[in-house]
Amino acid sequence: MADTQPDVAEAAAGELTVASLEATLQKFFAKADKQAEERFERLESQFETLNVILAEHTKELESQRKIATSLQAQMKAVGITTAKHDEMLKQLLDKITSQEDRMRRENLRIRNLKEGEEQGNALAYLMRSFPKWFPEMAGNPPAHRIGPPRKSPDKPRTMILKCLRFTDRDRILQSARKNDVEVAGQKLRFTPDFSDATAQRRRPCYPVMDRARRTGLSSFSAVSCCHLN
């Protein structure tokens, strides 16, 4: 009988210890569950906030994309309009150039004539000289030098004369190609009088035309294309 009492006491103590441990573990797990739940709630709240921010950014990016698309469309339209305006401007400039060239088609440029050779009266000088240079030509063409007098004898000003008809100008050019005209040891050059725009387009042809003249060929230029005969 005496041996069983300690066993009962030990069993009761063991049951108390297990019960106490279970209670302690339950409190620990309950506290841990509560803390975990609170953390999950905070994380969930943070995720919701991030989702709201992400949605706002997505909306803003979509708005920016639409603005960029609209700007691209506007720029494309502006580019098309600018190209049309450039083409219209080019056509207008071409018309002005064509009209200016038509106004100058009776004009003839005389190059390499020494300064002062005409002694201040270009018309009288040409009236005396033309019958010598071109016996087949008649008439009294008005003429003048371009720009103020130059001191350098190496670069005399160009003289411009106006023929009665552009056919007269062409006859002079043809005659000048066949027969050289020299004054005071300088070979004169007779060229058409073009507008600045046409002269600019012809300029790349000058080296080719000069080589053609040196080899005895005649040349003429149509706008920006050189042709050799």
Automatic annotation (TrEMBL):
This protein's UniProt keywords: Coiled coil
Source domain of life: Eukaryota
Coiled-coil spans in chain: 40-109
PANTHER family (alphabetical): L1 TRANSPOSABLE ELEMENT-RELATED
Entry protein name: Uncharacterized protein
Organism: Mugilogobius chulae
